TrEMBL record:
Protein name as it appears in the record: Unannotated protein
Annotated GO CC locations: cytosol
Organism: freshwater metagenome
Gene3D superfamilies found in the cross-reference section: 3.30.230.10, GHMP kinase, C-terminal domain
Domain GHMP kinase N-terminal: 73-148
Family per similarity comment: Belongs to the GHMP kinase family. GalK subfamily.
Keyword presence, Cell membrane: no
Domain GHMP kinase C-terminal intervals: 247-309
Pfam families found in the cross-reference section: GalKase_gal_bdg (PF10509), GHMP_kinases_C (PF08544), GHMP_kinases_N (PF00288)
GO biological process: galactose metabolic process
Domain Galactokinase N-terminal: residue ranges: 5-34
Keyword annotations from UniProtKB, A to Z: ATP-binding, Kinase, Nucleotide-binding, Transferase
Phylogenetic lineage: unclassified sequences, metagenomes, ecological metagenomes
Record GO terms (molecular function): ATP binding; galactokinase activity
Length: 328
């Protein structure tokens, strides 16, 4: 038995998914692999990178107290996918943990396909969003799991997080995307949940941010809440424009949209860090670079840069790959 699941990098559209907004990630050529044997009565998992052995009897409910602690993810997945079989498997990954490249979602999808490969991608993604929330206690959105479950080789994935509609858009071959790790981060204990609450506060005033305008945002009296809403509404507009200009080869405009996205995430949504701001500013001044921005939930993690092929930059050049799957 072997299942694989890619990481993902979000090219534009951060902190929009949990308000039903638009995002444009792509699955990348870094992988989590779950490989082992089918068994009758239990789920047993080890990891190349994490200590301990996770052992879960079939049919067990989710346990937040399971040891080792990374077993919470396995327990959450197993409690939701109703496996008819057990597995004895090992996990390995080339996705850096805490980099904002969806290492946890990749783990969830790899384990889910090992346990139950009969579900449709969108159904599985929604269950794995629940698994993430169970394991972390963080009210995360659907982007990571839906991108990884539905990705196509050579394509970015435009997701409407309200309807879960997915549109695959070719990633041009005459640009490159480079991911640079800045600082380890975790959403547990971060201000991520605060941002979710602040967006809910904005929606209590002006209605769903997915359908709001910047004129609507001007009606919000609380300055902090207004800034959060301004980011979400303007970011949705940037996602649409980015996919359009990327498809027409207008990379200068696409790069500007990436820069504008980062500025909004930093100034309006307050999820960047001073170190990330400096790195993005420096990258955007580098010859051959169209644009750069933080990516993922923020509070550390990675920046993603769009550049001409061969531009000398630190980091990993990533390419768009297909979805998670069970391959044997």
């Amino acid at each position: 038995m072997k299942s694989i699941s890619p990481g993902r990098v979000n090219l534009i559209g951060d902190h929009t998914d949990y308000t039903g907004g638009l995002v444009f990630p792509m699955a990348i050529d870094r992988w989590t692999v779950c490989e082992g044997d089918i068994t009758d009565d239990a789920i047993t998992m080890t990891s190349d990178d994490l200590d301990g052995t996770v052992q879960i009897p079939l049919g067990s409910p989710f346990s937040s107290q399971i040891q080792p602690s990374w077993g919470r993810y396995i327990s959450a997945v197993a409690s939701l996918v109703s496996p008819a079989r057990g597995v004895s498997a090992n996990l390995s990954t080339t996705i850096p943990v805490g980099a904002g490249l969806s290492s946890s979602a990749a783990l969830e999808l790899a384990v889910a396909y090992a346990l139950n490969d009969t579900m449709q991608p969108t159904e599985l993604a929604l269950l794995m969003q629940q698994a993430e929330q169970l394991a972390t206690g963080v009210p995360t959105g659907i982007m990571d799991q839906l991108c990884i479950a539905t990705a196509r080789e050579g394509m970015g994935t435009l997701i409407d997080c309200e309807s879960f509609a997915v549109t695959h858009i070719p990633i041009p071959t005459d640009v490159e995307f480079v991911v640079q790790f800045i600082a380890h981060r975790t959403l547990e204990g971060s201000e991520y949940a605060d941002r979710v609450r602040e967006c809910a506060d904005a929606e209590a005033v002006i209605g769903p941010l997915r359908h709001a305008t910047l004129n609507d945002v001007s009606r919000i009296e609380n300055e902090t809440i207004a800034r959060r809403a301004h980011h979400v509404v303007s970011e949705n507009l940037r996602v649409l424009e980015f996919t359009q200009v990327l498809s027409t080869g207008d990379y200068s405009t696409a790069g500007k949209l990436m820069r504008d996205s980062h500025e909004s995430l930093s100034a309006n949504f307050a999820v960047s860090t001073p170190q990330m701001d400096v790195v993005v500013r420096t990258l955007c001044e580098t010859p051959g670079v169209y644009g750069s921005r933080m990516t993922g939930g923020g509070f550390g993690g990675c920046v993603v840069t769009m550049c001409t092929p061969g531009t000398e930059l630190d980091g990993w050049r990533v390419r768009p790959v297909g979805a998670a799957e069970r391959i044997s």
